[in-house]
C-alpha cells in the first residue's frame, strides 16, 4: 500500500502588489525592532547611506502610519525571508490578541497560542491547549507556509500567586498569566502591578511543592491525538474568514508531500543480528533469538543494598533473577548473564529518611576481590518523582561511590517492586538487558558489513534546576555501532569538546589507518570553532577522507511532521521514510523510525509511537554533499544507530550517538566530584 503523506502545513499567498511599511532609525513609542539582517532590500531609497552606516537596528510600525515613521513601498516577494516572517508573526499575534487569546512565544520566536479547554472541570486549575503557528517562506512549497503544531497542555492555578505563595516559595514560580499576557515571573515581574490578578502556571517545582501527581502516561497513538487537536484548531481559527483577511490562506487542506521529497532507507537497515539469527523487534527477538554475545566477564557476583525491612522482597527478587518464571527464565537463560548472589556482602541500612551515610560507609568498607566483577542492586526507598532534592540525590551519589569501587550498579524502586511482583517480570526484561550491556555483553548489533568508518556522537542534557547545559561526547568506532569510550564535560566547553573530538580521531587512526569517512552526530548546529580542531587533526594526520556533520534533533511538538492518510487511519508513516524539508541547496530531513514496516498490517500495541527526528547534513567540503547515495547512507546510519539502545527493549527514535551522551550528561553533574571515574569511561554504567 503506497503512502499518502501530508505535512501539518497550511499554505498562504504572498501579496502580488507592493505594500507600504513605515520605518524609523530611532524608536518612537511602541514599535517592532528590526535587526540588520531584516532590513528591506530597498532600504537605501528611504535612508540613503544606511548600509555604509551599518546600524544594528531600525524600527517599524509595519503597515500602520505613525508619527516619526516614514513610508517605504515593498514587494514582499523580493524581501529577506526573516523580514517577511517577522511581519507575518506580528500579524498573527495581533489577530489572536484581538480575539482575547493568550499568545506566548517559543525559544525561536514563533507564536504559541493558548486555547482554554472549557470542558475541563477542576476546582484548582484551568486547562489550556497550546498550539504553535510557525511561519515559513517557500521551504517545501512555492507559497508562504503555516506549520501548525500541538505543544501539549498547560494548567493554570485558579488561585492567584498572592494566595499560593502562602504555601510555597516564589522561587518555584516560572511562568504566570497576568492580564491576558504570558510572563516569566523572575524576569518580568516588574510588569505585574497586582499579584491578586497574576496566576501561576503549574510546573514541576510547584507540582512537587503541592504534592500533585504527574499526568498518567498516555500510550495511545500520539499521531491521531495530535492531528485531531490541530484539525480543530485549524478549522476554528486558521480557516475562519477573519483570519483569512489577515493571512490569505489559499487552501483548506494540508500540504501534500511532493513525491520527489520522499526517500526510504533500505529494508536491510532494519535488520539486527542476534545469536541465533536476524531479527527486527528486540521486544520479541531478544528472548527468542538470544543475545549476540553473553556476558564476557568471569566471576560476576551480585549483592544488594537495601533497608532492613526489605529482606523478604530481596529474597523474592533474587529468586526471580536466578530462576525466573514460566515466561522470564532468569538472568542466565534470558540475558546470558551467569551470576552468583553473594548475600554475605550485602549493604543494609536502617534509616529510611536519610540512608546515604550508612550506604556510603558500607561502600567505603566494602572489601572487594580483584578477581571478582561485582554488581550492586540498590533497592531505593525513593522513586523518580521524589520531590525532596536531597532524597533524590541519593541515587546519583550511590552510583558515583560504587563506580569509584569499580562496581556496576542497578537501581530498582522498592515500592514499584513491592506493589506488583507478578508484573515486575516485564521490568526485569529491561533490567536484564541493561545488565548484560553493562557487563560487556552484546545484546544485538547491526547486521552490516564492517567498514573503516569513525562515527562520533555528541549529546547534551539541560539541567533545568541549575539552568546549565551539560555536554558529553560518546564515540563509536565501528559502523556496526560498537561502543568504545566517552569523554564528559562538566560544562559546554568548546576547547574540551574540540580536544575530545580530535582525540577520537587520534586514537582511531593508528589501529585502523585512514577511515573512509568521519561522521559527527551533533545535538545542535556545530559552530566553526567547534569543528576547527577536527579539521586541524585531520590535516595533521593527513587524512584525505570526507568529514560529515549531522545535526540531529528530536522533533519538538512545535515543528514540522507528516501524516500518512492511507494506512488504516493510524497516520504513522512507514519506518525508514525520510522527507527532504529544506529549500534547494539545504540538506534537511525528517526521519521516521518506528515499528511500521512494509508488511505491517496493524501497528503493534503497547509500542512507541515516535515522532520523527530532524536531520541537517553539512560538510566543510560542500562538494561531498553532491553524492545522493552518500546522503542516503548517512541517513541510514542514523536510523540504524537508533536501534542499538540497550536500556529498554522498546524501540527508540534517537541514535545512541546522541542518546547515550545525553544520559551521561543528565547523571554526571549530580556526582559530588563532577567527574566520572576512569572505570566509568569504559562501561555503559549509565544504562
From TrEMBL:
The GO terms this record gives for MF are:
nucleic acid binding
A Pfam family per the record: Piwi
Source domain of life: Bacteria
Gene3D superfamilies (UniProt xref): 3.40.50.2300, Ribonuclease H-like superfamily/Ribonuclease H
- Tell me the ranges covered by the Piwi domain, including all copies: 374-673
Family statement: Belongs to the argonaute family. Long pAgo subfamily.
- Identification of the protein by name: Protein argonaute
Amino acid at each position: 500500500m503506497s503512502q499518502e503523506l501530508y505535512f501539518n502545513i497550511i499554505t498562504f499567498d504572498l501579496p502580488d502588489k507592493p505594500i507600504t511599511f513605515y520605518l524609523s532609525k530611532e524608536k518612537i513609542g511602541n514599535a517592532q525592532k528590526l535587526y540588520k539582517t531584516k532590513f528591506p532590500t530597498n532600504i537605501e531609497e528611504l535612508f540613503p547611506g544606511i548600509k555604509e552606516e551599518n546600524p544594528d537596528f531600525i524600527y517599524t510600525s509595519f503597515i500602520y502610519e505613525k508619527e516619526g515613521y516614514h513610508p517605504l513601498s515593498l514587494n514582499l516577494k523580493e524581501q529577506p525571508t526573516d523580514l517577511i516572517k517577522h511581519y507575518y508573526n506580528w500579524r498573527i499575534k495581533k489577530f489572536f490578541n484581538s480575539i482575547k487569546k493568550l499568545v506566548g512565544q517559543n525559544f525561536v520566536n514563533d507564536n504559541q497560542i493558548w486555547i482554554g479547554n472549557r470542558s475541563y472541570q477542576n476546582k484548582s486549575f484551568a486547562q489550556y491547549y497550546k498550539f504553535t503557528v510557525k511561519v515559513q517562506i517557500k521551504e517545501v512549497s512555492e507559497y508562504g507556509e503555516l506549520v501548525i503544531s500541538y505543544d501539549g497542555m498547560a494548567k493554570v492555578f485558579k488561585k492567584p500567586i498572592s494566595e499560593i505563595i502562602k504555601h510555597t516559595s516564589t522561587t518555584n514560580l516560572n511562568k504566570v498569566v497576568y492580564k491576558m499576557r504570558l510572563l516569566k515571573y523572575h524576569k518580568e515581574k516588574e510588569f505585574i502591578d497586582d499579584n491578586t490578578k497574576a496566576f501561576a502556571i503549574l510546573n514541576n517545582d510547584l507540582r512537587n511543592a503541592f504534592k500533585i501527581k504527574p499526568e498518567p502516561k498516555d500510550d495511545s497513538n500520539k499521531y491521531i491525538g495530535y492531528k485531531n487537536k490541530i484539525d480543530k484548531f485549524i478549522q476554528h481559527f486558521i480557516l475562519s474568514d477573519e483570519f483569512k483577511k489577515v493571512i490569505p490562506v489559499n487552501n483548506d487542506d494540508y500540504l501534500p508531500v511532493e513525491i520527489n521529497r520522499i526517500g526510504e532507507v533500505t529494508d536491510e537497515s532494519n535488520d539486527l543480528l542476534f545469536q541465533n539469527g536476524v531479527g527486527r523487534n528486540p521486544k520479541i527477538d531478544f528472548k527468542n533469538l538470544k543475545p549476540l554475545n553473553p556476558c564476557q566477564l568471569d566471576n560476576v557476583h551480585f549483592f544488594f543494598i537495601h533497608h532492613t525491612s526489605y529482606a523478604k522482597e530481596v529474597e523474592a527478587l533474587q529468586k526471580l533473577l536466578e530462576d525466573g518464571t514460566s515466561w522470564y527464565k532468569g538472568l542466565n537463560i534470558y540475558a546470558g548473564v551467569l551470576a552468583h548472589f553473594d548475600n554475605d556482602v550485602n549493604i543494609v541500612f536502617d534509616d529510611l529518611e536519610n540512608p546515604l551515610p550508612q550506604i556510603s560507609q558500607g561502600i567505603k568498607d566494602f572489601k572487594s576481590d580483584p578477581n571478582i566483577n561485582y554488581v550492586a542492586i540498590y533497592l531505593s526507598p525513593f522513586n523518580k518523582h521524589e520531590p525532596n532534592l536531597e532524597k533524590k540525590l541519593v541515587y546519583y551519589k550511590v552510583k558515583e561511590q560504587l563506580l569509584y569501587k569499580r562496581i556496576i550498579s542497578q537501581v530498582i524502586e522498592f515500592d514499584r517492586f513491592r506493589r506488583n511482583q507478578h508484573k515486575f517480570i516485564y521490568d526485569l526484561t529491561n533490567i536484564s538487558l541493561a545488565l548484560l550491556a553493562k557487563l560487556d555483553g552484546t545484546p544485538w548489533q547491526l547486521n552490516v558489513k564492517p567498514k573503516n568508518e569513525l562515527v562520533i556522537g555528541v549529546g547534551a542534557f539541560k539541567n533545568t534546576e541549575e539552568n546549565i547545559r551539560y555536554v558529553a561526547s560518546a564515540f563509536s568506532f565501528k559502523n556496526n555501532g560498537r561502543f568504545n569510550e566517552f569523554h564528559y564535560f562538566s560544562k559546554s566547553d568548546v576547547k574540551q569538546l574540540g580536544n575530545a573530538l580530535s582525540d577520537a580521531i587520534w586514537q582511531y587512526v593508528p589501529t585502523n589507518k585512514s577511515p573512509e569517512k568521519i561522521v559527527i552526530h551533533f545535538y545542535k548546529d556545530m559552530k566553526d570553532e567547534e569543528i576547527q580542531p577536527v579539521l586541524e587533526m585531520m590535516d595533521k594526520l593527513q587524512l584525505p577522507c570526507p568529514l560529515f556533520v549531522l545535526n540531529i534533533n528530536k522533533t519538538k511538538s512545535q515543528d514540522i511532521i507528516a501524516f500518512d492518510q492511507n494506512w488504516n487511519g493510524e497516520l504513522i508513516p512507514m519506518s525508514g521514510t525520510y522527507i527532504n524539508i529544506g529549500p534547494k541547496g539545504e540538506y534537511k530531513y525528517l526521519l521516521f523510525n518506528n515499528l511500521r514496516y512494509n508488511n505491517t498490517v496493524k501497528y503493534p500495541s503497547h509500542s512507541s509511537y515516535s515522532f520523527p527526528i530532524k536531520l541537517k547534513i553539512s560538510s566543510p567540503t560542500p562538494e561531498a554533499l553532491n553524492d545522493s547515495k552518500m546522503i542516503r547512507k548517512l541517513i541510514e546510519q542514523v536510523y540504524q544507530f537508533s536501534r542499538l539502545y540497550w536500556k529498554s527493549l522498546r524501540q527508540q527514535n534517537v541514535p545512541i550517538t546522541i542518546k547515550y551522551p545525553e544520559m551521561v550528561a543528565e547523571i554526571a553533574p549530580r556526582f559530588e566530584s563532577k567527574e566520572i571515574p576512569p572505570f566509568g569511561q569504559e562501561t555503559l554504567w549509565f544504562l
